Amino acid sequence: MFLVKLTNFEPLLDATSYLAQISNYADVKFTPLEFYLIAPYPSPRFVATLQLSQKCFTNYSVDHEHTSKVDLESFHDAILDGGSFASMTIHLLEKPNQMILRFQTPSSEIPPLHHELTFSPPQLADNNIGGQLEEGKFFIVKSEALRRIIKELPIFQDDSVVCVGVTSSQIKFSIASKEIVLKAQHCRIVGFEEEVETQFQIILRPMLFFLNFTYKANKVWFYKTKNNSYSVMAVPAFGILGQYVIYFPPTAAWEEQTNSLQMKGNLAKLVKRISLSGEFSLEIGSIAGEALAGVAGEALASVAGEALFSVAQADLAGSAQADLAGSALGDLAGNGQFPEDVSAAALPLKETS
Description:
This protein is an alpha+beta fold. The chain folds into three domains: 2-118, Roll (DNA Polymerase III, Chain A, domain 2); 138-233 and 246-250, DNA Polymerase III, subunit A, domain 2 (DNA Polymerase III, Chain A, domain 2, Roll); 259-351, no CATH class. It is built from nine helices and 18 strands. A hairpin with a 6-residue loop joins strand 16 (219-224) and strand 17 (231-237). Helix 1 packs antiparallel against helix 2. The longest helix has 26 residues, at 252-277. The protein is elongated and about 65 Å long.
């Protein structure tokens, strides 16, 4: 069974106009619970969507999933042409691959208006996008603050990926040449309990598209998907019945950078554990070796690993262990081969042991 009817055309009229800024086509997806309009942007790649609850529709009975590609301009013009009518009903004809929009009024004196849209196979092989959201961990940024970030970060084609580092106390938006830090008055952070950064990757170009995104609500929500692969931006739309959601898939370079940052965080925790507990085991040594090799390379990892292993063999405790571990990390940083922030995080531990 397929029956989709609506009397409020604004969501579809707005979305077909908005998404046409980044794509000529969109995938129209009907599921038993929700309606989606999905538009991919090719480079740098992201996927923008409108998601509407079935409650946005006067009638919504869909017993199986259906996805097809439609021309956004044709879809928009058809809805605009039927704007004076009271309702629009969507019909799907599998043969000859058409979506029929039927506009009607209660008056029998006004004949219905029909628009036929040709559809084709969907653009995206997997229209499930990034999977379920990690709803227990997110942050919210005021739209006015995000507009300032979009305008002030000098983002160009070769530097288009914005890295977003989140801790329990702040959010940092950065590119190679500049960073902007938001404190609590401009944002809300939920579920990030540690000071070790969690990394997000987003795109903020085309500028006009993302500026328009910030005007759709007073606040913008940021999530990761449960498989930790996609970064997600979302704003509520049309009351509580819909939302615009943008998905940012990871790039190979981004995955490498994220893995490096995670290993740096693990290494800082490792040094702290050594300095506070006075313990060094084979298990800790194995973790240290993996972390060091990942961010410093095999040769430098060997140097630091030997220093840490000598700590274990000498059975030194407390501050002495932190001295040697911090010294090893400091040497790596001094050679310009190891991130200084890891060494800086380790060295103050000498005073706490």
